[in-house]
Please model this.
Amino acid sequence: MAGPLGKDLLGLASLSAEQITLVLDTAVPFREISERAIKKVPTLRGATIVNLFFEASTRTRISFEFAEKRLSADTVNVAVAGSSVSKGETLVDTARNLEAMKIDMVVIRHGASGAAKFLAERIESNVINAGDGTNEHPTQGLLDLLTLRSRLGTLAGQRICIVGDVLHSRVARSNIWGLKKLGAEVAVCGPRSLLPNAIGEMGVTVFDRVEQAIEWADALNVLRLQLERMQAGYIPSLREYNRVFGVTRARLERSPRDLIILHPGPMNRGVEIDSDVADGPHSVILEQVTNGVAVRMAVLYLLAGGRPELAEAAKRGGA
Amino acid sequence: MRDLLLRGGRIVDPSQGMDAVGDVLLRDGRVEDCGGTLGTPDGAEILECGGLIVAPGLIDVHIHLREPGREDVETVATGAHSAAVGGFTGVCAMPNTKPVTDNQAVVGFVKRQGEAAGFARVYPYGAISVGQRGNTLAEFAEMVDAGAVAFSDDGRPVESAQLMRTALEYARAFNVPIAEHCEDMTLAHGGSMNEGLMSAMLGLKGIPAEAEEIYVIRDILLAKRTGGHIHLCHLSTKGSVELVRWGKERGVNVTAEVCSHHISLTEDAVDGYNTNAKMNPPLRTQADIDALQQGLADGTIDLLVTDHAPHHYDEKEREFADAPNGIVGLETALGINCTYLVHPGVLTLSQLVDAMSCKPARVFHVPGGTLQRGSVGDVTVFDPTRSWTVDPAKFRSKGRNTPYGGYDLQGQARCTVVGGRIVYRAAD
Model:
């Protein structure tokens, strides 16, 4: 049965502003559960969830696993190494085999854009995209939205700049879709070789200098700069990247307002972000991690057919 | 063989400047007479063509038949059958087989398989370089003797400008085109669709138009230098059309083709990661479609082709970036071309027949492309307005990979005649 989000969570591009807001509102009471001594509710008791990770991931997988366990679901982790996938099994066969074991949900992380959608179209179970190639990472986008909303009150009219390798970033795409739907102004900043050519047509502003971005923005979402980008020749060196695009304390001091600094992790300290920023007063990076579990609990709850009333009750409770 | 009288159709044959209702009589595999009301010889088979177009047989100079090597995907026989159903009386088969068609033995094999199948005529391409590896020129002379009508490393470009120059020079003696797959591999590397808004939104690596255009102008310049005949395969961008126009204005021996999908679909067809809309070169934008259609109308683009590329169902049933390039096209081309070119008024029926029959025969120096007396008896009878819905399950090709499944098209072959013999006749 399809809940308020439909069968699957594949990306923020396909969600309405109302659906996104519903997830954020639902996440608020779930955040409270994680503060309790007994961090467990019976919401998904008896449900079976497979965490199917074709790419290495520590933080996202653990976050999903905590979310599942705190909702009392039974979970199985499948990592690509040691599974039949490494023996050449196709994605569609993997999916069908999982389905035959009568599971309820699949959380999939995969290196190919569109892989989550591919899976969702071929199995009955709910599918949650935990990152597909360079397309989307919707739960990351949602936790970024929740973190920003908690800090800023509302996203409408706020200015958010995504800094770094937007070309290869699924986090960037989920942020762009989600932020725009909630009425924020979105900009990107990075070397032009790491921005899609057509990024302007997606309705975002482009800054060539991080100083301009800092002057403009209410919040920066600083993306991880993958070492491989330098090896593939997109930028000359990490050193130069840090000198031109690095988010440093000296640069932040020139901001006219109290900037909020997000980072999806894992960080390359001294490359895209300096330690005194990551650990400093502007940073909400650990808040993001906390919110990640709550957002994922909300998504699991809503996909399992959970009622939106929880969000309503939470709002009435003033959360 | 019995005489065959095609009676009362509208004969559209631009090679003779003919567009009039009349009869065509085929005898001993050749055109005995064409035009006007012809008497019925004793014992002749009569094909009533009233309300239909009677045209010189359609020829597709760019298809992939997968034999030898991938007979599970397509054989020469199934491909030639598919061609006949689509109204084609002749096809040129690309050499990226396994083993590569880079020697007289494989060329002869493909040709014989075509003859044995007895559907559309099959003309093999030979590879430009040994193994299509781009290093050493393959043995053109022997392959021409064995039946090769052109040379290409299609599937990949000839990366060395020096090798391309040599190929253009060496081929001059045989009067055959060198057909280039234009793609700068360093720019296209890892790309799986057009670079633009859609690739940015889907998070797929794009292939910029310049990857094609850089090779288009390089090859035009090399043809200008050598006097060789460069034929540019499956052009997909506005810039390419402008560059070909530039070359033709300067008298360069350049010809060019466009695929039916590139004049009818944009990159939007990829949305949702539709692997049946994945091909190389990729689907581009409406501005590109407009320029390609205009190029066809003004003759800058010479030919319409399919780039028929069958793949196994399993190979397309996977992650977009990992799925193979290409779609089948032989059985949909005529319908697409009528629907997207003739009915909107981009091309007249005469121009369509010119781009699908007369010019292919002329550019590739193969028989047909005309219904003049004495020419081969290859005829396509089609209904340019007949509506039908594409159902891939009904294809005679082994391939089902098409983005047109469920499309309503207007225009369909009704009868295909090769060498005076009916090789396909629509059942309904």
Notes: The mean pLDDT of chain A is 92. The beta strands of chain A are 48-53, 74-79, 105-110, 126-132, 159-163, 185-189, 205-207, 219-222, 260-262. Chain A touches chain B at residues 13, 90-92, 110, 112-115, 117-118, 132-136, 170, 173, 196-199, 201-202 (CB under 8 Å).
